[in-house]
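In keeping with the milestone schedule agreed at the kick-off meeting, the structural modelling team has produced records for the first pair of proteins. Each record is given below as a sequence line and a structure-token line. The laboratory manager (R.T.) confirmed that both were archived under the project's standard naming scheme.
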Amino acid sequence: MNLFELHNSLTITERKINGIPLIKTKIESQLNALKARTNVSANKIDFKTIKIIYGLGNTEASPILLRIYKEGSVVIDKHGGSLIITWTVKLDTLYAMAFSIAFISLIITSIVTQLIFSFIIGIAVFLAVVFIGVLFILASMNELVLSSVYKK
């Protein structure tokens, strides 16, 4: 188990699914809509968020800077009558964001309370942000994959 990556695997056995080439195309187009650069091979899609530099007055960079699933891959395999889709997302950005928020909360609470309580609050905030971030990534990636799999 790697603490810096989040993995999930979906097994689909229903009949009303798209073909593998169409699933790859739909996943790739959804990732491109999220401003991610994709690299498609035989059964794997690697993605990485494009770093876009905007001018000082443009605020469109904010959603890209706050995106916590910046890099990962989606693997599509067919075994017998079932389709197995495994995705992986790197969590380094989530950990950096959680550490930053925890550090800010530690500084703010150290003004009001004792230092030991500030550390406890900082650790609790770090764990809460990581937990919420992991749940958000799970929901977002499962929605991305499942919306590409089923026929409409």
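The second protein of the pair:
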Amino acid sequence: MSQSNSLSEQSRILSERLKGIPEAVVRDVQPALIKGAEEVAATIRALVPVDEGDLKASVTVTAPGQTTPAYAEGGGKRTAGTNQALVTVGNERVRHGHLQEFGTVKQEAQPFLRPGFRLAKPKALRRIQRAVGIAVRKAAQGSS
């Protein structure tokens, strides 16, 4: 086996590994995305003003590849990408989250969504960053 064949074989192996890294990394990071979204949702639920509890119960985590409830934030259904976990508020029966968050002429704002996200975001980001680092190292070693 000549030196050029050896280099070309090494190049082929490296190329195959590089193709596999994104898929393996995304697959390995998804549990951290979901866990981070669940933590954000829990923080939001803790801050929701509770009257009847319907708004609190409408806080939902949508896993990668799944679709959000109808009438959730954004006005309709949305499918999460392979590298996304979505936290939404609202459903077919509960459509007043934005009124609580921003207030109306007759009701003062009672923010819960944005403060909840800001409080939970640092921990969720650290979890996701750790998972990405571990997944990249694992994929680079060829053990994915």
